[in-house]
Amino acid sequence: MDHQTFNTFREIVYVNSGIALNDTKEAMVSARIAKRMRAIGIETHEQYLQFLLQEESGNEITHFLDVISTNVTSFFREPSHFEFLAKNVENWIAKGKDRIRIWCAAASTGEEPYSIAMTLLDAAGGRNVDMRILATDISTSALSRAKKGMYSSSALEGVPELYKRRFFVRQKQNNEIVYTVADVLKNIIVFRRLNLSKPPFPMTGRLDIVFCRNVMIYFDNSVRSRLVNEIHRLLVPSGYLLTGHAEGLTSVKTELRCLEPSIYQKQ
Ligand SMILES: C[S@@+](CC[C@H](N)C(=O)[O-])C[C@H]1O[C@@H](n2cnc3c(N)ncnc32)[C@H](O)[C@@H]1O
Fold first, then answer.
1. Are both 122 and 243 inside the same structural domain?
2. Which atom of ligand 1 is the closest one to the Cα of 18?
3. Any idea what the CATH number is for the domain that residue 97 is in?
4. How far is the CA of 259 from the centre of ligand 1 (A)?
5. How far is the CA of 214 from the centre of ligand 1 (A)?
6. pTM > 0.90: yes or no
7. What are the residues whose beta carbons fall under 8 Å from the beta carbon of 57, sequence distance 6 or more?
8. Ligand 1 contact via 66 beta carbon (within 6 Å)
């Protein structure tokens, strides 16, 4: 693909998702778009660009962002955040809090929101607490895999044995073992498509904790700042924002207080 075509794709990605692609991403973008081109029978990147610009329903932009977004994730990724979650939930319940709202802002294929759900249910220990998780992502293909909640045994490597037995149904499918998430987890999660680069967001209830991990690395400072300010607005006083361990907010002007690297609190 020529550089001008790459620049136009890059502009479309930025305007529609806030993902900022630098020159080093050209080969990756080219390969990912080629995957989509094969799926719809288009031969050159230039033809695909024309198709993307002219397709009137707007559906193609959704498919385009599906192939561009990086969905790498895993169960209990960066485990200290789940210890932090469990400790807070136990404290809140001990103090009589009976409503907990968590937003998982870049839920990808579901491993992160399901890890949150397992931690919540375990920490609540059967007590009657109204717990809900909103799990959002820009990628519709990632979200449909998340809603399905079916994982290979290798995907479940980070899941403690006890949780595997309690929260998954083990089945044999085409000679392979697959694990399906139990309804008790699915029932406390709502999956929705949401573009983090376009605040304000339509959430009504105040949020206790926002997991916004390993997605801000794809954004530039202006998108990051708008997002962090919006998260600040949506949190309850003393609520927390958790970012990826490699994502500091040092370049973002925010009223959130840094408690420790990757854990922020609304004052
Ligand atoms: C690398 S994954 C991280 C998944 C998970 N949070 C974790 O830490 O394992 C990044 C996710 O962010 C999503 N994403 C990228 N840009 C987005 C945007 N503008 N709005 C919402 N989600 C976005 C991608 O689709 C992808 O699923």
1. yes
2. 19
3. 3.40.50.150
4. 24
5. 7
6. yes
7. none
8. no
